[in-house]
Amino acid sequence: MTVIFQNLSKNFKNVAAVRDFNLAIEDSEIMGLLGPNGAGKTTLILTMATVYHPSEGTVIVNGYDVRRKPTLVRGMIGIAFQDPRFDRLLSVYEVLEWHAKITGVAKQVRASRLEEIMRRLGLWEIRKRRTWALSGGMKKRVEDSKVFIQRPSIAVFDEPTAYLDLQTRMLVWEMIEEMKEEGRTVILATNMMDEAEKLSDRVTIMNLGSLVALGTPSQLKQSVTGGEVIEVKPSDSAKIDLEAIKILPQIEHIVASDGVLKLFVTQGRKTLPSVLEKLSEQGVTVESVYLKEASLEDVFLQYTGSKLTS
Amino acid sequence: MTADERFQQNKTVRGLLIALIARDLRVLVKTPWIIFSRGLAFLVQIFVFAVLMSRLVNVPGFDFFTYYAIGTVLVTVASIAFLTGYDVYEEAETGMLDYLLSLPLSRRGYVLTRAVGGALRSIIYVTPLYAIVAFIEGFSNLLDLAGSYLLIFLLATGITGLSITVALSIRDEDRFDVTLALLELFFIRFSTALYPQTFMPLAASVVAPFSPVSMTSDVVRSILGHGTVDLTVMLGLVAFVVSMLALGAAMYLRKIEGGYFD
User: Fold this and answer.
1) ipTM > 0.85?
2) Model pTM?
């Protein structure tokens, strides 16, 4: 195991940001971390990275307890933050070179690695530009580059592809997968379901500081009651009597969110006409309706009762 | 751990600390307009204001120009050292502090390098200005100059520690600005850096000796003037530096323990 969270809690005054969190992340695993804003993902990452002290419990990183060997643990972890964190006055090259230096990238390989990663992510041509002058997407590339250059034993990416165009997004995915192939452990905090699904070996869903679900993407999808989802967008959701629909035997669970009804069902094809009939009886006009297999988004909705904002 | 491993580890730690200080200095050279404007302000202070005042103030045996020129160096060092507090406050607010604290450095090492980095930045700012003053006044004893330089560095380190402490103690931006401005006012304006204690209004003359800027100014003048050092004042200055660094470190640890700006 590379990282073991043991009964970890982190409180800020009276607010519990992480509650009794237990999780073991395997070597060379990509662990997706899903959760809405305020779920405690960043606090969890920063406690593992020894920026915060645990309030209770601990984290073991590569066999070292964060409470006892914090400086050693820091040397094993590299974080690409959600919002880029670097000196605005420095150039792209200076930011990355400094990060490489301070995180211990050997002098012999530093320059070549900097050039390699910067060229791949399209930063080489703008290496002399000061970071304050960069667009959001370019800043994100610089932030991600820090970890790609550092190549730590445990790489943490917090929303690695936010603000990126599709092509760069796929390139970053490819580079994250390469890190795994090199034997590194990756923790991927994301709000993007497709990203979590494509990259993660396993996914952890967090809500209100707690772990609410854990498994491979397919295991999680199978865990959705019914396994299928009917998504209905009515013209006026306020008019709907949910209880009248819930009595249909194939319906396991209904979640209404942002004017859309999600009905977790078994035998979707059979159930769909009955659902539409019930809505019609209530005088509700349906704008759109889909029948689909459960996605990670649905898993999230089922476990947390809310949609994941992206 | 073998001696060789220990040597390698110490070498790495030194390298990291130097890298952190180098970051501070690199940011400094990226702001030449600030260096230029502060340098210009300094020159106006001594070549316009000090010259004018020394013509108006006529006290036998007292050279106000020399007094003021040395004091201006100390005041410039102190005000630049206060800037580190603004940097740290901004780092905490923007989340940059999370990044810095996630780097492989011990907390003590981190605080120390921030204070030393801030102090070095102040020293670099004033070196050309100090050289001008030394040239005009004919201070040529290298030992005296080195001693005074060390004192200036100590003052800068202590004030950097103080400004870090304030930056990490106050969350509200307005309160932080006001507190730092008031401290700057007390440390600099209620000090003997720019005017002798004997000519000060009573209230100011009572508090002036307690300002570290006063202590440093007086000792520096004493060294440059007649090569002597008042050990009591020196000890006071060292106590200020040590206590401010300890306070800064304690504040960092407290912030990390509880999380900040949550």
Assistant:
1) no
2) 0.80
